[in-house]
């Protein structure tokens, strides 16, 4: 991947709890650690716990919803400084949700919109023309608007909800 640090959203587990859970499901004696021994679980208990954890992870999303896992769609390098991950597409409504990772110095060309485009800055900062956006800011470009070049001097991670670009569109 590219050089912008990424944060996982697993902060609800303390490092200690994550270590104990990992140790508890470790069923390979060659990998066993003092943590797994101190967890006090037999091999049978470890196997049962691992089955329960794995079953819970693979449970389907609530009815009427769906989940897109991080592993479901790959990052695609579109230039030396920009990667894109298409998270969701809706061909009926002709829109999509994408993540865009911009390395320092990256830019996105000006482009028109046939639908509103929502841009949430997850990490870093960008400039749209002279307008600066920082982590947590959302910018909306209305249908019919062509916005100026988007530049990130220090790198950024963006979540964009927009129309599906026309065939042959180049972001950089």
Task: Please give the structural blueprint.
Blueprint (H helix, E strand, L loop, with lengths): L14 H11 L8 H5 L4 H15 L18 E2 L4 E9 L4 E8 L3 E3 L2 E2 L4 E12 L2 E4 L3 E4 L4 E2 L2 E3 L3 E8 L9
Antiparallel strand pairs: 1-2, 2-3, 3-11, 4-10, 5-9, 6-7, 6-8, 6-10, 6-11
Tell me what the structure shows.
The protein is of the alpha+beta class. The protein has 3 helices and 11 strands; from the N terminus they run αααβββββββββββ. Strand 1 and strand 2 (82-90) form a beta hairpin.
Key features?
elongated, disordered N terminus, 172 residues, 18% helix, Jelly Rolls, 2 domains, 9-stranded antiparallel beta sheet, two-stranded antiparallel ribbon
| Tally of helical segments | 3
CATH superfamily annotation of the largest domain = Jelly Rolls
Main sheet overview: 9 strands, antiparallel
CATH C-level of the largest domain: Mainly Beta
Helix-strand pattern: HHHEEEEEEEEEEE
| Distance linking N and C termini | 18 Å
- State the helicity in percent bands: 10-25%
As for the CATH topology of the largest domain, it is Jelly Rolls
Number of strands: 11
Low-confidence stretches: 1-12
Structural class: alpha+beta
- What is the CA-based Rg, rounded? 21 Å
The tally of domains stands at 2
Mean pLDDT: 83
> How would the global form be characterised?
elongated
Under the CATH scheme, which architecture of the largest domain would be assigned? Sandwich
* Percent in strands: 25-35%
């Amino acid at each position: 991947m590219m050089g912008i640090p990424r944060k996982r959203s697993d902060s609800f587990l303390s490092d200690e709890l994550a270590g104990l859970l990992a140790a508890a499901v470790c069923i390979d004696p060659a990998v066993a650690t003092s943590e797994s021994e101190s967890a006090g679980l037999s091999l049978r208990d470890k196997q049962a716990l691992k089955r329960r954890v794995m079953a819970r992870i693979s449970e389907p999303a609530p009815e009427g919803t769906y989940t897109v896992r991080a592993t479901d769609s790959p990052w695609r390098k579109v230039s030396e400084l920009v990667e894109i991950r298409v998270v969701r597409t809706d061909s009926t409504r002709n829109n999509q949700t994408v993540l865009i990772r911009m390395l320092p110095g990256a830019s996105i060309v000006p482009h028109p919109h046939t639908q509103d485009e929502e841009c949430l800055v997850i990490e870093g900062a960008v400039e749209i023309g002279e307008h600066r956006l920082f982590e947590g800011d959302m910018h909306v470009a209305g249908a019919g608007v062509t916005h100026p070049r988007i530049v990130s001097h220090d790198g950024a991670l963006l979540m964009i909800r927009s129309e599906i670009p026309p065939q042959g569109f180049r972001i950089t």
